[in-house]
Structure of Dymeclin:
Amino acid sequence: MRFSRSGLWFNPLFGSNLNCYDMLNTASYDMFSEGNQPASFVLSPFNFFISSSGEATRRPLADSSLHVLLILIYYRKCVMEETLKDKSDDSATSDFLLKENTYFSENSYYKALENVRDIECKLIAVDIEGNAHCGPLVRLPFASLFDTLGMYLADETAILLLYSLVHGNSDFLEYVLVRTDLDTLLMPMLETLYNASKGTSNQIYMVLIILLILSQDSSFNASIHKLMPPSVPWYQERLLHQTSLGSLMIIILIRTVNYNLSKLQDIYLRTNCLAILANMAPHVHRLSAYASQRLVSLFDMLSHKYTKLAELKNDKMRIGNGESRGDSLPEEMSTELHIYTDFLRIVLEILNAILTYALPRNPEVVYAIMHRQEVFQPFRNHPRFNELLENIFTVLDFFNSRMDA
């Protein structure tokens, strides 16, 4: 199963009508337009923001620059266009009808963002036909930008900038994916999800979309299980020792689903969390015991919600001496039951992907399923789940027989 980011709303980013480049010089980036006219003011917010990467503390100027940069990125001017349209009727009063059209003008700052390249990359950008790129070209030090974003990701503004870069610039996305210290970005984002009750909904959505984009890459899913954060001091439920970044990410995503079910009731948020888990599942490596238990508990929790809704449905059908039918249910209840059916199926697909593609590398997942195998039994003959549960019970039968022996 693969979930794509296509269709997600995205506002374009920065650009300029300048054909320019910048040169690295002690954290200062000078830009020049055609004809060598200075235009360093265009990226001066980036200049001040990135130059704070080596600072022990954040600078107010960098904070202000980040806000200015986002204003430049997302500003759209509403333009009103007046056109003359021929009136196709027999009236002699007028031959023309004045019509007003409104639209949002292009943000030229965005155009250049799509073409931003790493200052360390000496290759000339070419299009799919092999022609050299001739649009506005900007060079930035991706390494400094990566490190600076890691410092600021506790703020919603920095998350918005990271989302914009990851979604809008394929070069920066590729750079992020090949970094060996992904915890620089992931740890503050996971902490944001952990403290979801203290953040804004927009902040949570952007973090999840960033993780969804990253989780589409197989190398990302493999590398996060090789990184071992020394500690997770902000996680209060229990001590997490020798827990990989991948296991921590799964724990936090499941916790976010639980929080959503109890507080927010946001289907979009839940779907994104499950989509990320589904993208990660085939590449899971040595998932921790706690993460494995939480994964099985996720199915158990969703199954309780599903069972309660199904019982309400049966109660409604018994009203009127059995003459009422399922379609007499309130539309909201029928829709919610269908949603939970889909959620349960996704969780089963996640477990199946681990058992199919990564079983030898995940003994703790097998143990967690064996320990709680009774939670799957009520759904064994369900028409939406039977083929998925057949595989799970095949694995259970194999290991149960070995245990009995």
About this structure: The longest helix spans residues 289-318. The chain is about 50% helix and 5% strand. Residues 207 and 363 are 30 Å apart (CA to CA). The two ends are 36 Å apart (CA to CA).
